[in-house]
Design goal:
Length: 138
């Protein structure tokens, strides 16, 4: 058994609470992992909310974190990653995002929804310059 003071959580879909978060065009469902792990991890579902406004995350950026797991639950999105080019991720696809890799979202479907797990929970997002050799124009 771990010596961490983590708590068991059972987050029920029938009691889901959706809230604003990092991006204005998405809404977020916190799965309780942040509180249960004392901020070591966050697990949330992120889904498109129908808004079309551009935001800073569509520019090149990094997440200041140690771990980032993304699993597409619905829809699709097109991202560009430094040294890996443009990738379209679709329902059922998984991305293990290298810590602090420069990337940007190009576009996503109206029904885009992902499960994202990040460590630490209170990670920061920072806008960066486009890497040399970036494929898509901003």
């Amino acid at each position: 058994m771990s010596n961490k003071d983590w708590k068991f959580v059972h987050n029920q879909a029938s009691e889901a609470v959706w809230a604003e978060g990092l991006r204005e065009i998405f809404e977020y469902r916190d799965l309780g992992t942040k509180a249960a792990s004392n901020g070591d991890y966050i697990a949330h579902i992120v889904r498109a909310n129908g808004k079309k406004s551009a935001d800073e995350v569509q520019h090149w950026h990094i997440h200041e974190c140690d771990f980032q797991f993304v699993m597409v639950l619905k829809g699709w999105a097109k991202f560009e990653y430094a040294d890996h080019g443009v990738k379209t991720i679709r329902e059922g696809d998984h991305v293990f995002q290298i810590p602090q890799i420069p990337h940007r979202e190009i576009e996503c479907s109206e029904d885009f929804e992902v499960l994202e797990i990040v460590a630490p929970a209170d990670f920061k997002t920072r806008i960066v310059d486009a890497p040399a050799g970036a494929e898509a124009a901003e």
